[in-house]
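Onboarding guide, step 5: your first structure request.
Type a short instruction followed by the sequence, for example:

Predict the 3D structure of this protein.
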Amino acid sequence: MKKYSIQITTSAANDMENIYDYISVSLQTPDTAMSQYDRIADAMMSLEMMPNRMKVMDSAPKYSSDLRRMLVDNHSIFFIIQNDTVIVTKVLYSAADIQNRLQ
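The system replies with structure tokens like these:
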């Protein structure tokens, strides 16, 4: 079975840090923040195998038709597949206005 490498953009890494900070500081639950961070990171790493199991999104203007979405709890991991690499572009809270935030 083909194994893909995972590349996390600066934007996606910043998103992860912001999620952790919000849960840890604003909600004052650092243990929950670490657990959520770990679940998202583990899900990203699972994309090494069969990342195309996630369907291409119907509308994704910035990334044309290549953008895919993986749900993890209340968050969405957005990524594209290029050759043998999965590029994680954004990690967003799923209840947010995703279409505008992806632009």
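Each response can be followed by summary notes, for example: The chain has one domain: 5-102.
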